[in-house]
Amino acid sequence: MLKITAARVIVTCPGRNFVTLKIETSDGVYGIGDATLNGRELAVASYLNDHVIPCLIGRDAHQIEDIWQYLYKGAYWRRGPVTMSAIAAVDMALWDIKAKVANLPLYQLLGGACRTGVMVYGHANGASIEETLDNAAAYAEQGYKAIRLQSGVPGLKTVYGVSKDRFFYEPADAALPSESVWSTEKYLRSVPPLFEAAREKLGWDVHLLHDVHHRLTPIEAGRLGRDLEPYRPFWMEDATPAENQANFRLIRQHTTTPLAVGEVFNSIWDCKQLIEEQLIDYIRATVVHAGGITHLRRVAAFADMHGVRTGCHGATDLSPICMAAALHFDLSIPNFGIQEYMRHTAETDAVFPHAYSFEDGMLHPGEAPGLGVDIDEALAAKYPYSRAYLPVARREDGSMHDW
Ligand code: KDG
Ligand code: MG
Question: Hey, which end of the chain has fewer CB within 10 Å, N or C?
């Protein structure tokens, strides 16, 4: 038995907040897991400290599935982002430990590599179409095979997905949520010209993606998807809020643009109908918010039966630990589609030294045993938690809009 002897939560803010769980074992091997839930970080830290860690001490670190079931079924209160992020952190740390004990990179324990690397997409954005496409051209020059395009909307001061920096994007930018004004009409007019200009400038050999960020109704999303069809986007993401999974039937009836959804999902039950009825093409649930590697593998296997591929969320609020976990997962499953890759800042990379690397539009998790990522606790301690929230959106008449 490999006994769990200690576990602790490390909260750090090297440019943005991250929550990390570190689990130690009787033979000295430790594992780490990401528990970051953007804007609700301390809720997960408390869930782990106050309710999970006391139940872990003394258990066998090798019993990953049993511990997952124990934390999921045993708590009585199932699902939800706080619970599932906490379970995910435990799960990642335990897989890290198991692979370190085996002296293998984690993907080998997950069945070995199905591909040579993981195709990623980068984020190009700008205040205008021209600026966005200059940015996209810079990504293409760096070897990216897939690029997400978000552009400022004429008539709106700020828009989701458009940052101040060319290569770093951090949407949680204020100690209390800032307010932005939203107009669906203005937005819908702005996206097709962006994609038309993108194909003219970038050609047809690069995948182009777009994130709607839940801002449209199903019929509006159907119209946008249809308008984008001539430019063959790789996907239209989060077209409409997905609490009501049946909403996607309406979008599907109106467009052949591939649909991706699920970065806010935390359970297979959030996407059961979407996958079963083949209402989507890519499932975006990710390791940290969807119950860890153990649960995400279940989601991927179910998706594979229905012709749905993965496209894991990979924004800056998912720590390098989650990125490493996602890459091992991506490399090992048959129905991988694409992986989002928003680069972290140099400060974040220094706190989380990692073995994964980017080359020619692809990421590879590297060959270090375990997840191949560590946390420099002394450095992490120099960056105390600093509350930061995503902005909220209101329509031009002042009413709240979907994020
Ligand atoms: O925490 C929220 C961000 O991760 C999200 O706004 C980023 O939509 C996003 C994306 O696709 O990366
Ligand atoms: Mg998104």
Answer: N
Alpha helices, DSSP H, located in 47-120: 53-56, 64-74, 81-102, 106-109
- Mutation choice for ligand 1 from 38, 169, 259, 313, CB with most ligand atoms inside 8 A: 313
The whole model's pTM is what?
0.97
263 C-beta closer than 6 A to ligand 1? yes
Quick check: is 397 in a domain? no
CATH code, 228: 3.20.20.120
| Residue 108: φ, ψ to 5° | -65, -35
Note whether 67 and 163 are same-domain residues: no
Q: Are 25 and 2 in contact (CB under 8 A)?
A: yes
206 and 254 assigned to the same domain: yes
Number of domains in the chain: 2
Distance 103 CA to ligand 1 centre (A): 34
Q: d(Cα 302, Cα 306) in Å, to the nearest integer?
A: 7
pLDDT category at 403 given cuts 50, 70, 90 is: confident
Would you say residue 401 lies in a domain?
A: no
Residue with CA nearest ligand 1 atom 5: 315
So what's the pLDDT on residue 168? Answer: 67
